[in-house]
Amino acid sequence: MSLCVLCPGQGSQSTDMLPRLLAEPLLASHLQQLISGLPFDALAISQDMSRCFLNEYAQPLIVAAGAAVSQALKSQGVHIDLSAGYSIGELTAHVVAGSVCASDALRLATARARYMDKAAPPAHGMMAVKGVGLDTLNLIAQKHGLKMAIVNDEQHAVLAGSTAVMKSICKDMERDLGAHVVHLNVSVPSHTPWLANATVAFRGALEQTSWKHFDCPVLSALDGSPVDSQSHAIDCLSRQISEPLQWARTLELSAEMGARAYFEMGPGNTLTRMVRERFPHVQARSLSEFQTFDGALSWLGDIVVC
Predict the structure, then answer these.
(1) Residue 66 CB burial class (10 angstroms; 0-12, 13-18, ≥19)
(2) pTM over 0.90
């Protein structure tokens, strides 16, 4: 059964993210080595609610966690056919594919966050909206100076823009349109033209990185296209900072390419829930849904031989 590994983005982390992984014997050594190279006290900041969601820390922490899980899966002989990542998770997906080594991915995640913070206008952020069609959301965005940042489904998307504007319209959207609105714990308007300068800067960092052979394709969150070359990877990873993501298309392409089982690296299970909603008959689990990493390995062993 073809396995697609999913790598989450910002907002999925929790204060027990690193301690839980460090408590796992098969994961601890991988994670300790990775976080020891970060330019901050990763364990302390990951458990500090006031700092763990800040861009400069969140992005490298999420990549470190995912990279450690990826290394542990490979050490246990788990075969991966496809990888895909949501926002910063696409960088983790390249660690899964073997196209970027984990240490380079952490360096790139740190640089990516720095470039985005520098480019972002003040008092901007993102909000997720469910239960409203994309045409209506586009009209709302245009009317209020917002941007469509991510399309997750026909009635599930993420808008970005002025935090004050988004807060001022959310009650009306909930009352008049029956929308379910969640303000994301993100301080930059990712995947919008406001971050065009960050795209340029990050492309330079990607071009200076040593790329390796792809063990499996990475499905780009820009359009779902399979990435298996350095030039394509650099283009997608840089552009996705300032262009909207078509995550719904990414999931569709994963199914078209034969994925019949999905495993989310964690933290959280947001991407797993999206898969279940779209493909109710496939096998989909997140590491966060298992009590132990051994339990996840047992499930993976069962589904791979199905």
Answers:
(1) buried
(2) yes
Under a CB-based contact definition with an 8 Å cutoff, are residues 95 and 156 in contact? Answer: no
Write down the domain spans for the chain: 3-119+192-304, 124-183
pLDDT, tens digit, for every residue of 97-154?
999 999 999 999 999 999 999 999 999 999 999 999 999 999 999 999 999 999 999 9
Going from the C-alpha of 279 to that of each of 55, 188, 213, 276, the distances in angstroms are 32, 31, 31, 5
Q: Check pLDDT > 70 for residue 191.
A: yes
Report whether CATH 2.40.50.320 matches the domain 124-183: no
So what's the pLDDT on residue 246?
98
Count CB neighbours of 3 within 10 A.
22
